Amino acid sequence: MTNVLEVAAAVMQRSDGEFLLAERPVGKPYAGWWEFPGGKIEAGESPYHALVRELHEELGIDVDVAHPWLTRVYTYPHAKVRLHFFRVVSWHGEPHGKENQRLSWQYPGAVNVTPLLPANGPVLRSLNLPPVCAITHAAELGVEPFMERLQAALQQGVKLIQVREKAMDAATLRAFSAEVVRQAHAYGARVVINSDTALAREVGADGVQLNSAQLMALAARPEVELVGASCHDRQELERVVELELDFALLSPVLPTQSHPGAPALGWEGFARLVRDLPMPVYALGGVSRADMDEAWQHGAHGIAMLRGAWQA
Predict the structure, then answer these.
(1) What CATH number corresponds to the domain at position 45?
(2) Alpha-carbon distance 131 to 67, whole Å?
(3) pLDDT attached to residue 2
(4) Prediction pTM value
């Protein structure tokens, strides 16, 4: 059986979204290739404590706040590695290469250093996903008032929208979806259509959001750019992994207005279900922007909101 090398890796991010890459130093495998900083987890050491130690040894910084994020396994010719990624959002000191390695701050979607270690490709794609997924709510607000709220949300920086309007007839939904896509794309935001891959293609959306029944019935990933899935348990989350989808929504985290008596996962339950998954998971159900730090602390990529996304 192949031994797995356990590694802690840091996505060090500034407030403007820039993140740090480091060049592997001479004398190490893949010298000259770029990667997220970090290093081997020693025996008896937790991934978090390994991260703190490695960043101090390699970059001369002290970590203040680091949130668990993704865990990805990759097989190189020389080793099979399990990478425990953390998003490091606060630290003391100015990062510098203590092993004479070069450092470079980069923006998601605009990385200009090469070559990158191949294990990092999916991680960079995940970094392109914003912290908020906004789910449309025109049925309650009305289409015209919703469009006003949409414009305001886009102006305030919303970058990912799920069109989910189960009460609309097909013609109204088609027109509504096309207009959401038109407005979103004008602001560089992306749109996924709930449950309907054909409609997503028809209106020029960026992808589709599968419901849990579709997720479990599918044999292969739909052929669109961006695919998410709505999940409620670990089995469904693991199906997302098998199909190599881009992200998941996990619910309900907290009690919701629409299902006030339904059992909720709670933050500890959410953290238990998303632990060691390789893709971003959004927390959905009863959450608001005020819960973002709590979500990050428990392994979420961010939060997904229905009513809270469109509050005036």
Answers:
(1) 3.90.79.10
(2) 13
(3) 63
(4) 0.95
